Amino acid sequence: FPPAVFPLSCAVQNYSWGKVGLESEVAKLVASGDPLVQIQPDQPYAELWMGTHPRGDALIRDNRIPQKTLGQWVADNPACLGAKVKDAFQGHLPFLFKVLSVNTALSVQAHPNKELAAKLHAQFPEHYPDANHKPEMAIALTPFEGMCGFRPVEEIVSFLQNVPELRALIGEVAAEQLERSGSDDPRGVSAALRVCFTRLMKSEKKFFVDQLNMLVKRISQEAAQGKDTSGSNGDLLLRLHSQYPGDIGCFTIYFLNLVRLEPGEAMFLGANEPHAYLHG
């Protein structure tokens, strides 16, 4: 029988948002797994991939095994997946196990469901290299901060009433429509929320940059005067703007839930769920 447990050399992704050098948990894991690896102190180490993804198939470090990569080994030994998984996923490993080390915020994104993922893979394989949907389970190794899913409508309405720069981008008609929508009409709330978020994300660039600069200036002045800026989510707004000045994504903090996790806590991100990892 071939060895069932063997060491892997896993792919590292050096995206610019990753923590740098040995501040990164990814770098620490890489160094602990291979003493010959030299961690570059000024290099971001953002993601460690443990799986069979075509852009980062893990290498096998065991001379007893003829296959060079984990993907090749799974293809030659599909029974390792168990009969149910093997049959359901045509002999492929159905997940990609990652460790992320986030220094600056990632962009807001939403992963397609299975049907749309297959369609996008067929149409744009260079951008969607596989046909799988991408639900995620994020488990915190350190204190972690992210955004996931839309806030309760009451919170969004409160921001629309306390952040005039946001209301200017949404427009009075859309803002009032959301304010009038009631919790007893989830379809009405969903439709009004869709209009508001779409208007935000399709704002003309000069207009939203001007509004964002006005908001940052106002919150900075209020903070300097010792005022409470929590009604405008001031601390997070200033932090994100310092990382990505002039970015429309700064306004998404008024629509998406802010989630803070302690080590061992987790959150699930389903298909079509807007989310962004912020730090940790």
TrEMBL record:
Catalysed conversion reaction: D-mannose 6-phosphate = D-fructose 6-phosphate
Cofactor(s) required, per the database record: Zn(2+)
Residue span, Phosphomannose isomerase type I helical insertion domain: 169-256
Swiss-Prot/TrEMBL keywords: Isomerase, Metal-binding, Zinc
Source taxon at top rank: Eukaryota
All copies of domain Phosphomannose isomerase type I catalytic, residue ranges: 5-153
Top class in the EC scheme: isomerase
EC code(s) of this entry: 5.3.1.8
Molecular function, one GO term: zinc ion binding
InterPro entries linked: Man6P_Isoase-1 (IPR001250), Mannose-6-P_Isomerase (IPR016305), Pmannose_isomerase-type1_CS (IPR018050), PMI_typeI_cat (IPR046457), PMI_typeI_hel (IPR046458), RmlC-like_jellyroll (IPR014710), RmlC_Cupin_sf (IPR011051)
Any Pfam family the entry gives: PMI_typeI_hel
Pathway(s) it belongs to: Nucleotide-sugar biosynthesis; GDP-alpha-D-mannose biosynthesis; alpha-D-mannose 1-phosphate from D-fructose 6-phosphate: step 1/2
GO cellular component: cytosol
GO BP: carbohydrate metabolic process; GDP-mannose biosynthetic process
Family, similarity comment: Belongs to the mannose-6-phosphate isomerase type 1 family.
Record function comment: Isomerase that catalyzes the interconversion of fructose-6-P and mannose-6-P and has a critical role in the supply of D-mannose derivatives required for many eukaryotic glycosylation reactions.
Protein name: Mannose-6-phosphate isomerase
Lineage of origin: Eukaryota, Metazoa, Chordata, Craniata, Vertebrata
